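Subject: for your reference before the review

Hello V.,

The reviewers asked for a structural picture of the protein, and I figured it would be easier to keep everything in one thread rather than splitting it across files. Below is the amino acid sequence we used in the manuscript, unchanged from the supplementary table.
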Amino acid sequence: MIKSNIHIGIFGRRNSGKSTLINLLTGQEIAIVSDKPGTTTDPVKKSVEILGIGSVVLVDTAGIDDEGELGRKRVNRSLQTIKNVDCAILLIVENQFGQYELDLIDRFEEFDTPYLILHNKNDITKIASQTITVIKQHTDANIIDFSAINTRDTNELISTLKEIIPTTSHKKVSLIGDLVKPKDIVLLITPIDSEAPEGRLILPQNQTIRDALNNDCITMVVKDTELDDFLKLGIKPALAITDSQAFGYVSGRIPESVPLTSFSIIFARQKGDFDAYLQGTPYISELKDGDNILILESCTHQTSCDDIGRVKIPKLLQKFTGKNLSFTFVSGLSEISPPKSPQGRTYSLVIQCGGCMITRKQLMNRLKPFSDKEIPVTNYGMALAYMNGIFERATALFDTTKL
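And here is what came back from the structure prediction:
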């Protein structure tokens, strides 16, 4: 089973008590607290286990009313955080509720981010009935009159968070549980090349092994170079999963009667817009000279001559299409600028990695601007399967009605 950390963003004006709330929930002085407005600059993250919710990443943001050129940059960073959190806490104090808060609410709703409103420091000023009336004219969000020194208020906050956090953020979702049954043999093909981390497997491989074991499967792990030796044993697996970049080699050896897919594709099903990937992948055959391809990596890492996203996929795309293509690479959750191609077009295709290092919410909002513009999107594994001529085989085993 896979369980992602739940990201909770804390937003509000300067000196509204965001950092104090972070410290309260973590039980540590993680964020700097000061009476001086603007103490928090860039978003600050802290992992914590909250009883009844689980593993949480709290994100402290700069004040939404920050001023000056640098202040506007900090505000923009705070706003960009909204699309990457599973839920939000909007802090207000002294019954201040105006355009700053309304702008935040608009952003929460734009990215389908559930939120609650916390009137903070009620030990100094309690929330007024008129403030509640004004808020309810604009939103149905829960409103809590809160004080960091009142344990009951903290309990109410945690209880409300449990109610509004989407179930998809914390429920355990199996990678292959609907594809196998107990005692099935699952074969995992894991090439070890210069891109593989020293002394360990990559995260998707680790998590797939654990998921297979959780589903009481008999798990066999081999390198691609030992695949033929394994097949000579006469053991027929119920499912074979390979690293996407070995599709061409592996597909010619695994019998057609054995379902075959890749680590990247099973993660795409769990975290990405699987239907959009299915529809967008065949657009590879329609690429034209001068098209700009955006390749999105969810993590940051040193690149090598074997790098799948920055080296292998671009080379294979050029060879497969026979076109002169350009490529833009963005790693982590960095902002994406929309440059135009020489022909005046924006990105013609977006290729997203499996997304093992980020949440589903982060990945879906990463792709949303392109889907909104009807720019085709695909995934590392699906793109490689398509260019190796096994796209239908690699995706046929998934029942998209269950997604």
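For the response letter, the relevant points are probably these. Residues 290 and 325 are 5 Å apart (CA to CA). Residues 185-266 form a domain with the Rossmann fold fold (CATH 3.40.50.11420).

Happy to draft the paragraph if you're swamped.

O.
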